[in-house]
Design a protein that fits this description.
This protein is an alpha+beta fold. Helices cover 28% and strands 33% of the residues. The chain has six helices and twelve strands. The radius of gyration is 18 Å and the shape is globular. The structure holds biotin. The site of biotin has 21 residues, from helix 1, strand 3, strand 6 and strand 7.
């Protein structure tokens, strides 16, 4: 076991991603998990912040030192997103879906956000809303957010959620480190649930529409009505959604 072998449990931090990044100077911290009850400056993608009332969610960051070919945000984000979906299935018996690139939704509501940051090591930050009450989101004006307990109707044991999540992360990370990426890729594709559907793809050059013909860690391919098959490297895709 690598991921979760060492766990740093803290009450209140600015951001678990910052704590993990500060510990990246020591390679002995490979696999370290930083888990906090509360963040005072939790970060999201594109400069956004992440709000979670203390003691309601799972706020954690995993520090790893992947070999160069695996140091790709798309891969590390997929690793986390698939582990979260598997965990939601195991612990809450709920179906979930990955919304490109870093959100996990249950019944259209965002229950989890993932923030991968790379410096000396790779930090995979996961914010999963587990027991947050619905009015906790309304107060923070997060109208499209949700928590697992909102769907199960009963609170979940967060320790159990973290154990399952770390087990899935550790298993899949050891598989991809051994060069076996195909299984993760096909589960990521299945949880994304967009293959064959008509989608809108937002890239830096604009928005493109067409049928999603292929989705892999190497390329996202659209069948456009006028231009035919067009491919983008995943790193160039800002958003991808059913249209
Ligand atoms: C997003 O939705 O844009 C990503 C949100 C990621 C939030 C998690 S909470 C744990 C970790 N620490 C942070 O500061 N951010 C991530």
């Amino acid at each position: 076991m690598l991921i979760g072998q060492h766990l740093l449990r803290l009450d209140r931090v600015e951001s678990t991603n910052t704590v993990a990044a500060d510990l990246a100077s020591d390679p002995a911290n490979d696999g370290l998990v930083v888990w906090a009850e509360e963040q005072t400056a939790g970060r999201g993608r594109m400069g956004r912040s992440w709000h979670s009332p203390p003691g309601c969610g799972v706020l954690l960051s995993v520090l790893v030192f992947p070999p160069e070919p695996l140091r790709r945000p798309v891969l590390m984000t997929a690793l986390a997103a698939v582990a979260v979906c598997d965990t939601i299935r195991d612990c809450a018996r709920l179906e979930s879906a990955i919304k490109w690139p870093n959100d996990v939704l249950v019944e259209g509501r965002k229950v989890c956000g993932i923030l991968v940051e790379q410096g000396r090591g790779t930090v995979i930050g996961i914010g999963l809303n587990v027991n947050t009450p619905a009015d906790g989101f309304a107060a923070a004006q997060l109208d499209f957010a949700g928590s697992l307990a909102m769907f199960t109707g009963t609170p979940l044991d967060r320790e159990n959620v973290v154990c399952r999540l770390l087990d899935h992360l550790d298993h899949d990370y050891s598989e991809i480190r051994a060069g076996r990426v195909a299984d993760l890729e096909s589960r990521w594709r299945a949880y994304s649930a967009l293959l064959g559907r008509h989608v809108a793809l937002l890239a830096n050059e604009g928005t493109f529409r067409g049928r999603l013909a292929e989705m892999s860690f190497e390329s996202i391919v659209l069948q456009e009505s006028e231009r035919g098959l067009c491919a983008w490297p995943p790193e160039a895709v800002v958003a991808l959604s059913a249209s």
